[in-house]
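During the no-cost extension, the postdoctoral fellow (Dr. R.K.) reprocessed legacy sequence entries with the updated structure-token encoder. One reprocessed record is reproduced below for audit purposes.
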Amino acid sequence: MIAQLIEIIIQFVTGTISAVGYFGVFFLMILESACIPIPSEIIMPFSGFLVSAGKLNIFGVTFFAALGNLVGAVITYAIGYWGGRPFVLKYGRYFFIKEKEVHHAEKFFEKWGDFAVFIARNLPIVRTFISLPAGVAEMNFPKFAVYSFIGSIPWCFGLAYLGFLLGSNWLIIRKYGDILDIVVGIGIIIFIGKVIYDYYSDKNGNGKKQTAI
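Re-encoded structure tokens follow.
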């Protein structure tokens, strides 16, 4: 039963992107980010495969995927903002929102604050649900939108690039999806951490040099 459901999802994703290209990527990522169970681990690798076939551009795929992620995140943010936590927990199941995932997202948001929205876009499971506690907490919307868009770019690009490298074997990503989620997520977080560390190290270094002069 589960295998048949996954096959239906794969056919839906591949058929949509094959038919309408970038708009298909945009539309499917809206669904994924709005907590509809359409995995980005299928959307983006297949898009990367089409890049390897010369039918799409990897930067275009990444942009429209991140844009779709933003729109879906705004929808989920609005549910949390206008409905509040009681509404999310009571009616969330009608929006494919699981209570367990909501609790994980809440704990992550409590620990990292607003920056959790940026970090979580590159983490398995919580990336889809982090918009809910952000909405409930009435996080500053412009900041939420910027963090959501920029934060989703590494994840979208990383999965698309893996699909590009694997070519027609892109579906192997789904087979090892859970492990890949963790590996890619950790890799992206390390990369982001290094960029931030290098930035502040250079900044402090320049400051010390200027003081010495």
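Residues 2 and 8 are 10 Å apart (CA to CA). The two ends are 71 Å apart (CA to CA). The remaining legacy entries will be reprocessed before the final report is submitted.
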